[in-house]
């Protein structure tokens, strides 16, 4: 009897340990990434077998980033390298992507919904948008839109803003048709809006005055944050200082304001972009200057910002 009880206790302990591992987000992510990698690698192999070199190389890199031990990566790479140029018609590749895409997207869906540390939000948002890239259908766009609304309603404007910027860049037709205009104005007049452009990756927080109205023009205060990189806090402080004045506030998320650029400090940008410009210390103004100009052009067109009437402020002046 004692031996049976002891065996039962061991089984309970093993089951409890397994359940704990299943609930561990890091363990779950480590388990799910190879599943996604396998599907992406299979698509890369199809591309190699059918002469779609550029598409295959991109898929191979994606699979390798998910899991460097994914099946047949070396063979697929060799096959792709042996190709001289893309051979199949675009519609052939598109047809295969319609078959493979939803399966790959479903694998990314599992990763995107895992519980995670808020500091890792950028990584899990990437899974969400990779799913959309593989299966760009209206239902997925609507799903992300609901996620944006949930984030805004939960007082997470940074998350809502990041998602909205990326969604607009994917749903170009919807953005051009004004599909997100009302939402942006709502964000920017009630609190802040994270705004991007089509011509540069730099983004920034924007606040519109409470009396903002379409068709009118407004001076623009460009607030340049310091080494603390509290861009959202800076924008909100500038909003408070603005009071009831009819002016637009822009707090661009820049790189030249601080020393070491850390990806976790800049979740609104891809890790590779942050690392690239961290290595270009001394030249970061080459990112910031054109990026701020691109944002000001959007603010002028969308919100009536007066480009000839811009005022720059540093943290000490705000």
Topology as a string of helices (H) and strands (E) = HHHHHHHHHHEEEHEHHE
Numbering strands along the chain, what is their spatial order in the largest sheet? 1-2-4-3-5
Shape: elongated
The proportion of strand residues reads 5-15%
Low-confidence stretches: 5-21
Structural class: alpha/beta
Description:
The protein has 318 residues and is α/β, with parallel strands linked by helices. The chain has 13 helices and 5 strands. The chain has helices spanning 2-23, 25-49, 53-66, 73-81, 90-112, 121-134, 138-153, 157-170, 172-176, 181-190, 231-242, 271-278, 285-303, and strands spanning 193-195, 204-207, 218-223, 248-252, 305-313. It has a 5-stranded mixed sheet, sandwiched between helices. Strand 3 (218-223), helix 11 (231-242) and strand 4 form a beta-alpha-beta unit. Helix 2 packs antiparallel against helix 3 (53-66). The chain is elongated. Residues 5-21 have low confidence and may be disordered.
